[in-house]
Write a structure and sequence with these properties.
Blueprint (H helix, E strand, L loop, with lengths): L1 E8 L1 H18 L5 E7 L3 H9 L5 E11 L8 E6 L9 E9 L3 H11 L5 E9 L12 E5 L5 E2 L15 E7 L1
Parallel strand pairs: 2-3, 2-5, 5-6, 6-7
Antiparallel strand pairs: 1-9, 3-4, 8-9
Helix pairs in contact: 1-2
Bound molecules: inosinic acid and magnesium ion (MG).
The site of inosinic acid has 15 residues, from strand 5 and helix 3.
């Protein structure tokens, strides 16, 4: 069985949308600084591209989580594989995600982060699959709402591949 990638969102469209979100965040955080939390590994490309477009002072931290509970769906319980290096107390925190699917991972992550008393806590995701949502989570900045298809690129992987693609594509299989 071989795979190919069908382009869903070309590079220039993704870039333009990140420009817009960068401008919006810069405006809304005017006079403050923003502490970006990148969720590894999928959030890496988007976090870097977004950070370049933010004009208020930016700091970064990184976190890696895994969803457990078995099966292919995330469970709503996350295990921290790599925790943040710095406390969140008093910081304007913006969690940067690659994609929100069921919302289980995000919902659990927000609970963990809230307990650390940030001054504010918002969420920015490159992609959103609203039709898959099982948890009601508030997402403050959404790059693109997409249909229920398995996508790769811009940090997202299929079997650890395709994270480096500069566009968003759908994996298609032919046999
Ligand atoms: P949730 O807990 O169901 O919202 O899962 C979100 C996580 O599932 C994301 O951070 C991704 O790691 C992964 N994921 C969900 N949909 C896709 C997809 O279409 N492509 C690649 N990874 C995905
Ligand atoms: Mg993720």
């Amino acid at each position: 069985m071989s795979e190919r990638i069908r382009v869903l969102l070309p590079e220039d469209q993704v870039d333009e949308r990140i420009n817009e979100i960068g401008r919006q965040i810069s405006e809304e955080y005017k006079g403050k600084s923003v502490h970006l939390i990148c969720v590894l590994k999928g959030g890496v490309s988007f976090t870097c591209e977004l950070a370049k477009r933010i004009t208020v002072p930016v700091s970064f931290d990184f976190m890696a989580v895994s969803s457990y509970g078995g099966g292919t769906e995330s469970s709503g319980h996350v295990k921290i594989k790599k925790d943040l290096d710095e406390p969140l107390e008093g910081k304007e925190v913006l969690l940067v995600e690659d994609i929100i699917d069921s919302g289980n991972t995000l919902s659990c992550l927000l609970e963990i982060l809230k307990m650390r008393n940030p001054a504010s806590l918002k969420v920015c995701t490159l992609l959103d699959k609203p039709s898959r949502r099982v948890r009601d989570v508030k997402v403050d900045y959404v790059g693109f709402s997409i249909p229920d298809e398995f996508v790769v690129g811009y940090g997202l992987d299929y079997d650890q591949k395709y994270r480096n693609l500069p566009y968003i594509g759908v994996v298609e299989f032919d046999d």
